[in-house]
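A quick aside before the break. I want you to see a complete sequence-to-structure record at least once, exactly as it would be stored in a machine-readable document. Don't worry about memorizing anything.
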Amino acid sequence: MDKFSIHRVPLHPSIRQAQPKPINAQQSFKAHLQEATNQQELKVSKHAHERIIERNIAISEQEWQAVSDKVFEAHSKGVKQPLVLMEQAALIVSAKNATVITAMDRTEAKQQIFTNIDGTIVL
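That is the input. The structure line, written in tokens, reads:
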């Protein structure tokens, strides 16, 4: 008769797993906050870019920064699609996508009815 040998295998193998290092929540939050504030840049859609050129709308770098800051502030308060009224232009912005959707000069904006906006930023 052949000899069989039976090996016992433990039910719970003792495998040592490396203990994860505790994450400092304060540093993690601080890093995320800094990363989020550095990426606050407003994009301009192709349509809006064409309208800005067509209508000879000039917006300085400081004005773009002010628009950007206010759009991100409005987004943090729940606004998804604000109308931004500037001295020389009116912009419709998707705060969710951080993108200027369309632009018009203020004289043209006086004759318009704006729909699908849920906030207004006056600069």
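Two observations worth writing down. Helices lie at 25-38, 46-54, 61-76, 106-109. The mean pLDDT is 82. We'll return to this after the break.
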